[in-house]
Amino acid sequence: MWKSIRAWFREECPHCREKLTYLRHTLHTHVKHCPNGHYILETHPVLGVQVEIHQESGRSGNSNQQQLITP
Ligand SMILES: [Zn+2]
Fold this sequence. Notes:
- The structure is a single chain.
- The chain has one helix at about 1-10; strands spanning about 20-25, 30-35, 40-45, 50-55, 65-70.
- By secondary structure, the chain is mainly beta.
- It has one domain (about 1-70).
- Bound molecules: zinc ion.
- Zinc ion binds next to loops.
């Protein structure tokens, strides 16, 4: 139970464990990102939706992986 809640409110980069910082913060959208550019977490509290964007470094091209998370 607590584990799932912690995962939902994850505040650190899954790649380097750096604490996420706010990139953009509006009424309907909270966007946090890894200061090292690995990871972006978009939260839409009104919709109850989070979008994870993993920026894979060290590979050629920009193959961003997006994952939609619904509760
Ligand atoms: Zn990172």
